[in-house]
Amino acid sequence: MANVTVKLFGVLRMGTxxxxxxxxxxxxxxxxxxxxxxxxxxxxxxxxxxxxxxxxDPLAFKHTVIFVNGEPCKNKNxxxxxxxxxxxxxxxxxG
Length: 95
Known about the structure:
Layout lengths: L1 E7 L1 H7 L3 E6 L5 H19 L15 E4 L2 E2 L12 E5 L6
């Protein structure tokens, strides 16, 4: 297991109410199960204060732009090491 820091940006941060988390995982693909559990915890806490709050969509590899240590990561099987920093961004869109 690697102890890594995860930072969420943009729509992902707003939707999940998470900015920065520290998790113990082996591969990038393990990240989403861990973060979705944390999202559920934060949602439950926030729902008490705001009963109208809707649960965010689960985070998934296919819906996220991922950087590991500042480099784009397209391989969800990438092994991680202690101290790695992961950035999660929502895909670009516009019109």
